[in-house]
Amino acid sequence: MLNKASTPAEKIVKVLGYIFMAVCLIVALFPIVWVIMSSFKSNKEIMANGLALPTSFAFTGYQEALKIAPILKFFGNSVIITCCSTCINVLSLAMAGYIFAKKRFRGREVLYAILSISLMIPMTSVLHPVYLIINKLGLYDTKAALVLVYSALSMPMSLMILRSTFEGIPTSLEEAAYVDGAGFVRTFFQIMLPCAKGGLASAAVLAFLDGWNEFTFALLLTSSDKARTLPLALSYFSSQFSFNYTAMFAAITIAVIPSIVLFAIFQEQVVSSMTAGSVKG
Amino acid sequence: MKKILAAFLSATMLLGLLAGCGGGSASSGAASSSSGSGAAASSGSGKEIVINYPTFQVGVNTSAPVISALVEGFNEKYAGQYKIVVEEVPGDANYAEKIQVMISTGSLPPVVYGGGYKLLDLALAQDLVVDLTPYVEADPEWKAQYNDASMAANARDGKIYASSMEGSLVGYFYNKDLFAQAGIDAAPKTWDEFFADCDKLIAAGITPMAMDTADGAWCSQLMMGAMIATSGDEGLAFMNTKYPTDYNQDVVVKAVEKLQWLYQNCTTLDAVGGAYENAANNFYTENVAIIANGPWMIGDFSDTTLVEEGFNEKVGVAAYPGGFVYDEPIEGMFVTKQSDPALEEAAIAMVRYFTSDEAQEMALNMQGMVPASPTAEISDEALSTFPLLGDFLSQAAECELRSPTFTSNMVPGLESEWSNNLPNLATGNISAADLCQILSNFAASAQ
Question: Which of A27, A156, B28, B189 is at 20 to 30 A from A45, Cα to Cα?
Fold first, then answer.
């Protein structure tokens, strides 16, 4: 590119562009910064002026948060449950996405539509049946119950992402593998799956976030600390006539940091896979 | 082979669906004790019976220390015989949601605390509740705890199903310093004086009332309900009616009109859309002079993470103008039907222990919780720990007019409708008559 002196109009556009980006940055960062900042303020300061800076940087909120609720135990449970459900979800939906993308069979579109449409089923309508199934399976108050439910909850989104990912991989690759003597399973695991890394990461991140933030089933399907997850811990800090916002914001900070870090690391894959297959030609 | 596999998978999915959706019909009898949903595990004759007790009274809930002490005391008293295992369900609304799902699936834990969530009626509708009448009749001390108010909260059709552990005697608090700045010497005795005092506060540049609209508008509805109850016999009768269906009564419409005036002239901007926390904070930070709430708030007046040092010295307490206080034992604990009779016996023993006079006196001493039982003693220890409570109890003793709160009498679901429409009332988008019509329509359809 040639180095040319910018015209005043170009300079204005450039400045406006930076201003726009700065506004976007502030909008995106404000809630995170506000929560972290509030975790250092007293209840009085939070309620009196939510936007003011804390008068001191005491860690009492974090100490209280850890004392009031078993956050670390719940954190460990969340990690185990969410990682397991994400792996199951991505592996099984990768298989399904591959078949829907590359194989032709009768009823394919109908089946795909049925699976996708489950995205629109409100969660409250499945509470009762899921609760009964989990009880009948003897999985109440186990991590396995939540792993099972979370694996299924993200199914439609993962399926859509992975199908479009596999559609974007040239069929000639698959055919070449078959010509070289690879079987169906080997072709899928050794040829197609590595090519779909972007989509897999994207589906995994979204499934992870769904599981990490889920509250209702975690409340309904568990009764003890051994299987409860982090979102439940946040309810320990407010009740009808009492509240401890300092500890609550500290607990929120502990709860959201892993999600933010994960998204920051994989954001490129998430964005690129969400738009994969949207442009053809 | 593929077809067989496909058929097998389809059958599995179908069975799963049937298992999930079909189980509810079996809920009319005993609550299942085999599910791990919170129903207790009893371990046979001669062994310790375990009572799994889900509760929201954990975390920052003001009753958490009391429940913890009661569980400890019960487990000590019945060591080797019964044992309570607490299931923490943090958050009042979360608890209600979980119990409602359990009611619909017929898998309730042995003991349920009704609280303010109308859980007793929901469980009774599914025939899941044990009739406590013979047990209460056989125990004179237990029977003495049931006065008219307690019967209204815990009995249905003459049968006793629940036992209260906490009363709900509610007046209002005011900031004596702000009253003095406005030239007000004492709490008003009549509603005319009350509204005149509001004018004086406004004239002095002080916002009179802490109000809210969210979560049932607790503080606002207390003030409005008091106006209805003190408007005459008709109003008092309305406030003592469980599940009223007609809100288009003159006394109610007039009180709602006054509530609208208070929203528009006497409160803070954050009242519209605000919840209890906002109202409480406005009182704590001396932005407003009055808040309607119960004695459980007294402890907060000395909590320096919420208020300035010495704030408790500025607070006064009063019964409502016209000599009225809210007096309603909170719907108590009930025992659910279990397949194991020994577990039911254990659950009854737990309810008896938790709602005994001794337990209520301990709750009063520890947290200033007003006893539901008329036979529980108000100790000097409690009065010295919570002097404001002593002042309020002596004022309340002189009040002849009493009733439950406006929202506690509403049919299930109406409280949300009420709360959702209050911002429109406050901003003048709907009139008092419109709101009463909305409430009447909802209540009638719910019946």
Answer: A27
Which chain B residue has the Cα nearest residue A125? B21
Q: Where are the beta strands (DSSP E) in B142-229?
A: 155-156, 159-160, 162-163, 169-175, 207-209
Using a CB–CB cutoff of 8 Å, tell me whether A236 touches chain B: yes
Who's near B202: CB < 8 A, 6+ residues apart? B208, B265, B266
User: What average pLDDT does the structure give for chain B?
Assistant: 88
Distance CA A205, CA A189 (A): 20
CA–CA distances in Å: residue B145 to residues A61, A120, B97, B403: 42, 51, 30, 18
- Sheet-wide strand order for B162-163: B111-113, B333-335, B162-163
Which tokens is A215 given? 């509250």
Q: Do A237 and B60 touch (CB under 8 A)?
A: yes
The arrangement of secondary structure in B169-327+389-445, i.e. its CATH architecture, is 3-Layer(aba) Sandwich (3.40)
Q: Is A246 exposed, middle or buried (0-12, 13-18, 19+ CB in 10 A)?
A: buried
Cα B29–Cα B35–Cα B38 angle in degrees, nearest 5: 95
* HSE of A97, CA atoms in CB hemisphere, 13 A: 27
Residue with tokens 């049931």: B146
- The tens digit of pLDDT for each residue in A221-245 reads 999 889 999 889 888 888 777 788 8
CATH classification of B2-167+330-377, choosing from 3.30.470.20, 3.30.300.20, 3.40.190.10, 3.40.50.620? 3.40.190.10
Domain boundaries, chain B: 2-167+330-377, 169-327+389-445
Q: CB-based contact (8 Å) between A132 and chain B?
A: yes
Alpha-carbon distance values, B105 to A22, A136, B89, B396 (Å): 52, 12, 18, 43
Task: Among A129, A239, A241, select the one facing B297 at the smallest CB separation.
Answer: A241
* Cβ-contact B285, A44 below 8 angstroms: yes
Tell me which amino acid residue B166 is. E
Q: Does residue A220 belong to the interface with chain B, where contact is any CB pair within 8 Å?
A: yes
Q: For chain A, count helices (H), then strands (E).
A: 15, 2
Size of interface A-B (CB pairs under 8 A): 117
Facing B101 at nearest CB: one of A133, A138, A220:
A220
B273-293 in b/e burial notation, b at 16+ Cβ within 10 A? ebbbbbbbbbbbbbbbbbbbb
Distance CA A256, CA B415 (A): 33
Say whether A223 and B52 touch across the interface (CB within 8 A).
Answer: yes
Residue type, B157: D
Contacts (Cβ under 8 Å, ≥6 apart) of A63 = none
Cβ contact A128–B16 (<8 Å): no
Q: Which residue of A has its CA nearest to B22?
A: A129
One fold for B2-167+330-377 and B169-327+389-445: yes
In 10 A of CB A175, how many CB atoms?
Answer: 11
Which amino acid is residue B1, in one-letter code? M
Q: From residue A144, how far is each of A77, A130, A151, A219 by CA, in Å? A: 11, 13, 10, 14
- pLDDT value at position A275? 61
Residues of chain B above pLDDT 90, percent? 69
Say which CATH topology domain A66-279 has. Answer: MetI-like fold (1.10.3720)
pTM value is: 0.79
Any idea which residue has 């919570």 for tokens? B386
**Which tens digit of pLDDT belongs to each residue from B373-408?**
989 988 888 888 888 998 999 999 999 999 999 998
